[in-house]
Write a structure and sequence with these properties.
four-stranded mixed beta sheet, alpha/beta, 6 strands, Macrophage Migration Inhibitory Factor, about 120 residues, 2 helices
Amino acid sequence: MPFIDLESNLPESTFSEDFLKRLCSKTAAVLGKPEERMMLVVKPGLPMLMGGTCAPCVILSVSAIGVTDTAEKNKEHSANIFPFLTGELGLTEDRVMIRFYALEPHQVGKKGTVMSYL
C-alpha cells in the first residue's frame, strides 16, 4: 500500500481530479503496485521555499513496502516520476524534489490490523 504525498505552493486549481488519477496511475506503474492499493494526498497552496526562492515547486513523498528500500530502485523511480511531474505541472527539474521512505509491513495499519497479518 504505497502512500504518495504531494506538497506544493501551486494553487489548488492546478490539481484536478484528472491530475490525481494520472499521478496515481503513473506512480502505481513506476512502483509496480496496483492502483487499488495506492493512497494519494495532495496539499496545494502551501507557503514553500526551495533553493532560496518561493517560485512554484513540488515535494513528492513516496512511502512503500518493498520497493523504496534501495538507492538503485529509487534512482529508477525518480527517473520515471520526474518527467511526469515536470511535464504535467510545467516545472523545471530543479523545482521538484522526491523523498523516498521504505516501510515495513508492520508499519502500515489496515482493517484493524497491520499489513504483515493480512
